[in-house]
């Protein structure tokens, strides 16, 4: 568990981080988003003490980070940055094994761990172990960066725009890889990004910052349903907000039992998103879809009218709560 309580960071006259409080429970994925210079990276770097905070408290598992030995603290925390920070004259295997070697693991154990991680990250050992960073594509180098951060099995990962320099297709692949890794490893992750779609896709908890302050935080769906102000609304895509919300919602959570009327012609698997369902409705000129299970058996139906009604009542509900 990572907790920041009323944290400030000053650089001379600049207030880079201004009264930030947030907590990331164990095994959860927190994304920090906001425009350039709003204090995301500074917030991240204070967690592993690359930067000292000026005021407030930062706690790991309820213990102040100032009580930890900084070297031991950083070994508990994997750190991944945009330009990978790989050593150019070391091959991939040596780069990945850096922290275990510093920890004086026996050579055979380091080798085993490196090979295990390369496999986990889709980097075949025979092909990549002896390559140097300049021989890798951006996506491959970033996989090596993630493998290196995971080498000593830290419980926390801090990731600063890790996929920022990649083309959109590679970026999406690495997001997918990270989601799969997270489903297996359950690390506590704080992830900085400019890309709201990346944050919406990956995060359990979203923190929107502006000028050093946290403007709003919560689950991606809660922010999409009720952005705190026009700035958050525009970051979340303005008019596109409805479709983004639909991308995060599954058909199975909105289907109704099969009715007495004839099933609709178009069929959609229950695991698909509402965005895909809406697209199918538009494509097939149909306000109703039959929902099917993995064996293509009808299990329910989805109606556009009901979806619109539900969206309306959930907005009413969330405005009553706030
Ligand atoms: N070492 C430093 N010395 C002085 N000012 C700094 C330093 N590091 C950051 N700042 C300032 O602190 C503020 C926050 O910077 P930070 O890098 O945390 O923002 P960011 O949200 O991560 O930006 P970006 O998305 O562009 O990386 C900025 O005004 C920046 O100029």
UniProtKB/TrEMBL annotation:
<dbReference type="GO" id="GO:0005524">
    <property type="term" value="F:ATP binding"/>
</dbReference>
<keyword id="KW-0067">ATP-binding</keyword>
<keyword id="KW-0813">Transport</keyword>
<dbReference type="InterPro" id="IPR027417">
    <property type="entry name" value="P-loop_NTPase"/>
</dbReference>
<protein>
    <submittedName>
        <fullName>ABC transporter ATP-binding protein</fullName>
    </submittedName>
</protein>
<feature type="domain" description="ABC transporter">
    <location>
        <begin position="2"/>
        <end position="236"/>
    </location>
</feature>
<dbReference type="GO" id="GO:0015697">
    <property type="term" value="P:quaternary ammonium group transport"/>
</dbReference>
<keyword id="KW-0547">Nucleotide-binding</keyword>
<dbReference type="InterPro" id="IPR003439">
    <property type="entry name" value="ABC_transporter-like_ATP-bd"/>
</dbReference>
<dbReference type="InterPro" id="IPR003593">
    <property type="entry name" value="AAA+_ATPase"/>
</dbReference>
<dbReference type="GO" id="GO:0016887">
    <property type="term" value="F:ATP hydrolysis activity"/>
</dbReference>
<dbReference type="InterPro" id="IPR017871">
    <property type="entry name" value="ABC_transporter-like_CS"/>
</dbReference>
<dbReference type="Pfam" id="PF00005">
    <property type="entry name" value="ABC_tran"/>
</dbReference>
<keyword id="KW-0129">CBS domain</keyword>
<dbReference type="InterPro" id="IPR000644">
    <property type="entry name" value="CBS_dom"/>
</dbReference>
<dbReference type="InterPro" id="IPR046342">
    <property type="entry name" value="CBS_dom_sf"/>
</dbReference>
<comment type="similarity">
    <text>Belongs to the ABC transporter superfamily.</text>
</comment>
<feature type="domain" description="CBS">
    <location>
        <begin position="255"/>
        <end position="319"/>
    </location>
</feature>
